[in-house]
Design goal:
The complex is a heterodimer. By secondary structure, chain A is α/β, with parallel strands linked by helices. Chain A has one domain (about 5-175): Pyruvate-ferredoxin oxidoreductase, PFOR, domain III (Pyruvate-ferredoxin Oxidoreductase, domain 3), CATH 3.40.920.10. Chain A has 6 helices and 6 strands, in the order E-H-E-E-E-H-E-E-H-H-H-H. In chain A, strand 4, helix 2 (about 75-80) and strand 5 form a beta-alpha-beta unit. Chain B has 2 domains: about 5-235, Rossmann fold (3-Layer(aba) Sandwich); about 240-350, Rossmann fold (3-Layer(aba) Sandwich), CATH 3.40.50. Chain B contains 12 helices and 14 strands. Chain B has helices at about 10-20, 35-45, 55-70, 80-95, 120-125, 145-160, 170-175, 215-235, 255-270, 290-295, 310-320, 340-350, and strands spanning about 5-10, 25, 50-55, 75-80, 100-105, 135-140, 165-170, 175-180, 240, 250, 275-280, 280-285, 300-305, 325-330. In chain B, the strands form 3 sheets. A 7-stranded mixed β-sheet of chain B has the order 3-2-4-5-7-6-12, with helices on both faces. In chain B, helix 9 (about 255-270) links the parallel strand 10 and strand 11 (about 275-280). In chain B, helix 1 (about 10-20) packs parallel to helix 6 and helix 3 (about 55-70) runs parallel beside helix 4. The chains are: A alpha/beta, B alpha/beta. The interface of A and B includes residues 21, 28, 34, 38 and 42 of A.
Chain lengths: ~180, ~350
Amino acid sequence: MATREFLFAGFGGQGLLFSGKVLAYKGLIEDKNVSWLPSYGPEMRGGTANCSVILSDEPVGAPIVLTPEVLVAMNLPSLDKYENTVRKGGIILVDSSLIERKVERTDVDVYYVPATKLADENGAGRLANMILMGKLLSVLDEYNEETVSKALEKCISARHADMLDLNRKAMEIGRNYAE
Amino acid sequence: MAEKVLMKGNEAIAEAAIQAGCRHYFGYPITPQTEIAAYMAKRMPKIGGTFLQAESEIAAINMVYGVASAGKRVMTSSSSPGISLKSEGLSYLAGADLPALVVNAQRGGPGLGGIQPSQSDYFQATRGGGHGDYHMIVLAPSSVQEMAQLTIRGFELADEYRMTAMILADGTIGQMMEPVSFDFEIKEAPAKPWATTGTKMARPHNVINSLYLNAELLEKTNIERYQKYALIEEKEALAEEYMVEDADIIIAAFGIAARVSKNAVNEARASGIKAGLIRPITLWPFPKAVFAKHADHAKQIISVELSMGQMIEDVQLATQCKVPVSLCYRVGGMIPTPDQVYQAIVEANEKGGK
């Protein structure tokens, strides 16, 4: 992996900035150069939110991801907006419990995960984001239990330490999900 | 080495300021720099410092004037429209020779403009901003690590030269998270025998003032201040040079524009174009010598800015128009893409040149 660019997109409140941060921290723990950039426009208030994450062996240049290798889409407007920006041969992860349509591109790998439904069924109500992250890392063959766990510890404050296990569980659900 | 942590650029500024010994922060919230105030609000009470949300930007800068007069390290932060409000205070700080750190996380203007990143306060920052003959030391970070590093450097320079240092950042660098290590050797603040700390009946009063009704005396203080500025221009100008030694096409860019440009330079090199980047780290003093040095071998310089062309004037002055300088820009909160900059390089390489 020289440089890998990720775009996480969905509604504000789905935890996309958080899952992006976990990915960035995992990269940092694995000694990679990383950057994380949120959208901070007025659209965040009740509308769409997205965040760019770059992991690289080289110093990161522009932190804005315009042509992602990986797109994680958690609502239809995001898929509509970013589907065509994904690089050829890239990956699109779709929360299929929130997005009914299929991806039209045929030159990318697509994974449909009913993450919001899985979260509800497994008592991990708000952790669809982490289910998708689990699936993503497994697809990329980057699911390293040790660094994932350390990254979660960095991103979840001591005050919410009781959420650690639930996050780990959500990621495992995603990791083991097969369509 | 200290452990690296992921932090937003704005938070890195706040943490670095605390590590530099700043215990007094005054501000008024404005996007995209509010994380600085939030961080200060959380930390200052725990370490015996002052966090105060003032009733306005103008109040905040005048509180800075007060603490600076008492000889303590002090800062405020804002974004473009808020900095305009502070401009009177910036001029007074200069007129009273007070050290302070001011952060501007720029957003699109003029007027209230927008909340997305911009670099269009370059003139305002490098020419002083307020009224009268004066300068501020202007530092332009382009990474979260530099947000921290230049904050510390800003406090040091401000104390050393008794003047305001400004961190001229932008919304993107403020909002992005990157690994940062707080592994700094921090110089202690020098003695400040001029500060108004109470005479204890042992010395004459110190007076902090910017009013000089005697024209001859005011002229003399201005001239002396400019002698100090000349020394700073000689000693403190700083730039990063990236692949410029043999470059035909040189990009001039700072902050977020420099990061975008670095991608474009790498792409140009990969396609056989000799491109390079000069990234001013100090905007005032402007790194004139670095530009002068490369003016002879460059065919063209492209100034990449999030403004309608402000730094380009300093590039032209520094190179004495020996080499054509063109502009590549986006404004209003938009950011040039690496591809836009790359296309500008290709075009300059094909038909540019002296």
